[in-house]
Amino acid sequence: MQDLPIKGALKDEQLTIIENAGILVSEGVIAAVGGFTDLKAKADHIETITHDAVCIPGFVDAHTHICFGGSRANDFAMRNAGSSYLEIAKAGGGIWDTVTKTRKESETALIAGILKRSQEHLQLGVTTIEVKSGYGLSIEQELKMLRAIKTAAAASTQDIVTTCLAAHMVPKDWSGTAEAYLSEMGQHLFPVLKSENLTQRIDAFIEESAFTAKQIAPYFKKAQQLGFDITVHADQFSAGGSQVAVDFNALSADHLEASTQKEVELLAKSNVVATALPGASIGLGCDFTPARKLLDAGASLAIASDHNPGSAPMGNLLTQACILATFEKLSNAEVLAGLTFRAAAALKLKDRGVLERGKKADFMVFDTSNYQEITYHQGQLRPSMVFKNGEKAF
User: Fold this and answer.
1) According to the CATH classification, is domain 59-346 in 3.20.20.140?
2) Angstrom distance (rounded) from CA 291 to CA 104
3) pTM, full prediction
4) CA 270 – CA 23 distance, rounded (Å)
5) 121-146 tens-digit pLDDT
6) 8-state DSSP, 42
7) Which stretch of DSSP H or E encloses residue 30?
8) Opening angle at CA 244, ends 243 and 247, nearest 5
């Protein structure tokens, strides 16, 4: 993945493939990449793979909700049987169902759930994973989630990046306005996030069923004044969130299934990473992010799983990316970039996603002689080994 641009379309011919290669690791960082024979003499300990194999950087999943309680299997069944989002919500489903179940979970149970799910992602090659709050929707419950994520991060083999999504929706048990709820979070939650170092990232859902651009503006301004980075749930069901992401120079605009040509061009002209979440499209049965248009316009495209109990329960990042590639006609280079260094950029991480000197020694091995087999099998070819910071993690 060396020497590839952060933005725009990519051709497979731009990939660098080294035959009979070696990776020299020192203190968790790549010291050199090159011919195995040349590097062998410089190594104290050698891990040798004697069969045909392909090594690529570890995946970065830049958008998940794997801190939650309960299941929404009934939502999925109702949706596939023809029920609308509103009908499911009236029947007790939807985001509020997960909020209710997550609030009932202990912090210890949430930690166990995060570690279990993150380990499943690790075995599929994800060495860095983002995890959001957003199913607490009160100061006390959001803090419970964020503390659970922080504790899980300390115990996890992976790097876990935490994001506060207190602005997921207006909680049903909130008696005031949306503006008052956001003000409450900004005034009383943000300072604790800083004092306990719970997160550096603030997210919000910009949608008719959640928060408008006008409502969210003071919230994001407050966050930026305190030094938080911004990311946005944008254009999932209706356009408008991308404009907010660009206006606030967000790290990423995620979802984008409803983005029009206007939003595509807007994102392409900005430094905001466009993050496609094909798992949500599969789970909801809706359009995919216009990934091909975004890349051709010059945008930076990341691909994330959106792993959550409602709209994206699958969680298999590689399978989702391969399905997106089939429908949006993405090259292998574009898929792999979207899962590695471009996804890392969405998390403001420049030290991973590429196999080169000075980067984190996060990589994985697939038992195949041809890297094209990885996407060809649409996630069924799984890594035989995963390395984190140069140590075999799986």
Assistant:
1) yes
2) 38
3) 0.97
4) 35
5) 999 999 999 999 999 999 999 999 99
6) T
7) strand 29-35
8) 85
CB atoms within 10 A of CB 166: 29
Q: Residue 200 corresponds to which tokens in the numbers above? A: 């550096």
Both tokens of 381, joined, read: 């070819």
Phi/psi of residue 378, nearest 5 degrees: 50, 45
Q: What is the pLDDT of residue 86?
A: 75
Structural domain 12-56+353-392, CATH architecture? Roll (2.30)
Give the number of other Cβ atoms within 10 Å of residue 198's Cβ.
19
pLDDT for 89 equals 84
CB-neighbour burial class of residue 380 (10 A; exposed 0-12, middle 13-18, buried 19+): exposed
Q: What interhelical angle do 95-104 and 139-155 show, nearest 10?
A: 70
Same CATH fold assignment for domains 12-56+353-392 and 59-346? no
Domain definitions of the chain by residue range: 12-56+353-392, 59-346
pLDDT surpassing 80 at residue 327: yes
Instruction: Give the model's pLDDT for residue 207.
Output: 95
Question: Can you spell out the DSSP letters for 137-202?
Answer: -SHHHHHHHHHHHHHHHHH-SSEEEEEEEEESS--TT--S-HHHHHHHIIIIIHHHHHHTT--SEE
φ, ψ dihedrals at 161, nearest 5°: -105, 125
Q: For the segment 351-393, what is each residue's pLDDT rounded down to a tens digit?
A: 999 999 999 999 999 999 999 999 999 999 999 999 999 999 9
Report the half-sphere exposure of 65 (CA within 13 A, side-chain side).
31
- Please give the average per-residue pLDDT across 341-359, as a whole number: 98
Q: Coil, strand, or helix at residue 133?
A: coil
Query: Whole-angstrom Cα distance, residue 260 to residue 16?
Result: 34
The tokens for 205 are 């859902």
List strands edge to edge, sheet with 391-392: 54-57, 363-366, 385-388, 391-392
β-sheet bridge partners, residue 122: none
